[in-house]
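Internal ticket #5521
Category: modeling
Description: The requester needs a full-assembly model to guide mutagenesis choices. All entity lines are attached below as received. Residue total reported by intake: 336.
Assigned to: D.W.
Attached entities:
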Amino acid sequence: MRIAVLVTNGFQDDEYTEPVNAFKKAGHEIINVELKKGVTVKGKLDKASVVIDETVRNIYVEDFDALLIPGGYSPDKLRGNDDVVDFVKDFAKSKKPIFVICPGQQLLISADVLKGRKITGYRSIIQDLKNAGAEFIDAEVVEDKNFISSRQPKDLPAFIKACLSKLN
Amino acid sequence: MRIAVLVTNGFQDDEYTEPVNAFKKAGHEIINVELKKGVTVKGKLDKASVVIDETVRNIYVEDFDALLIPGGYSPDKLRGNDDVVDFVKDFAKSKKPIFVICPGQQLLISADVLKGRKITGYRSIIQDLKNAGAEFIDAEVVEDKNFISSRQPKDLPAFIKACLSKLN
């Protein structure tokens, strides 16, 4: 399966590395997406760096099977860009799996695709999720149709297990 | 006037220093508030550091005349704490002035005090502000009763001018 990862500077290091390593180990292909192809972006803790494979303006939802959005400061930076928000909106409409953790859900809020959906997320964004019309559930992983969400780095094992199961 | 400033690590440096310097110059007193008294917190750009004067649990709205919430990563970190959110909620109810810039408005969202209020804020949180029931206005400064809000560092001159006028 081809998995797009939306990531920019300040991402939560292990929320990128752990799922991506698990997906690669399971034979899936990772395509890192940001505003500029070829740049290297760094994690918030400076423990991981990622080379961007594709520009968000030059990709199509049809070319991917799933979308991963790691947390940290990255989602809030990315959602300031309309191309990123439109891509997430189109992805959500396609009903292909979207994996979000921590404040990665901020991109789903900006894409306005959370009405009536069950979701979890980082403590600081609970009110934002409720205001977006989602039903917030305080659990390590929440699955609602094509959305799989988790709250924080310590939920990663359950998050990765649920994502891998969805990709099978 | 006594002005409480809610600030923690990762604050937008000039969104703290510029208003605070202007307020001090005008004769106002600044009390820096965070979870722990005595600690030093640093700006996102490492251009400013702030010593915390008071713990949020030990202060009362009655002891202050206004509240300033600078942006950066600071507001999102602070709103994960219920004492901070309760303080902001009480402050909003007191009808004393609240000055917010950039994503400082995230604390007003978590305090659930934005319904029907005119507000501006950083680009990435526009959808969050609308979802919170606020009327988003794209202007360098927006004043609605006791709330004065701005979008970003370049709005600082207009923001400071409006805040100082409110304090007179």
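Resolution: model delivered.
Comment from assignee: Chain B touches chain A through 19 residues (CB under 8 Å).
Ticket closed.
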